[in-house]
Structure prediction request, 304 residues.
Amino acid sequence: MTKTFVWVLFVISGLYAGISWCIVPDFDANRAFQDLVTQCDFGPRKPGSDAHQACLDWLTESLRSLAVEVEQQHFSYIFRTTKDTLHLVNIIARFQPDYRERIVIGAHWDTRPTADLDLNSGRRKEPILGANDGASGVAVVLELARLFSQYPPPVGVDLVLFDGEDSGHSGKLDDWCLGSRYYAMNLSGELPRWGIVLDMVGEKDAVYSMEGNSLDLTPQLVRTLWSLADELKLFCFDSNPGPAVWDDHVMLNKYGIPAIDIIDFDYPYWHTLGDTPDKCSSESLGHVGTLLINWIYQGAQVRP
Prediction:
């Protein structure tokens, strides 16, 4: 692993804390891609399935080997129309838990229980593998956790894997983003300063436009990150506005956490059986991970 040393001016809770050396570690995109593949090897991770439970165990143990604190947050949701009950679990890994100034980085780890947009109408009731739609964001989060365990970040970081993001019914917004809603509603004390949601960040030749709800709700953070991406020559990031997406960041904003979504929504295999690892690349994961690592270790996360 190679590392970059930079001077960093740390500002914690608005106070000058001095200048010191900071290591900006390299994000291992190949290792992140292997985590994407490993998740898919469990099969579709729809809530209530054996694959969902097996992946939950693997994710929890992986994070427990890296983080100071790891919590499973269990909750249930009853659909109003069908009365079906989902039993769901968020996974929260905390780094620098004693730091008051905190950020949250999240991704959903569940997968869509139906391939409702598949071209083959006869297979639309089958669950999707979710290589990009689920596993890609989680893969970036896991690699961040490895780096945080080796190089403690200069700010408190909560890595959250949300469950139940993708089990909703068409046209019923209340059925979506269940894990992020539960997480945000049950936070106590001072809220994280910023939030970043990673969703569908692994497609080959991905393009991350400025997502519409992020621009509307938390424009300062969007512009800071996309400007940094330009400085780092991360060509996946496009400074043009993109579509507004109802995703976990909307729930975080609703409950007081200024949050944005990094997403490539122009993905032809969305909610289809074609969402498989061969449609993804380590390069795309690496661009997202590199951006976040530089943002965090340069101290820019505290006051964009």
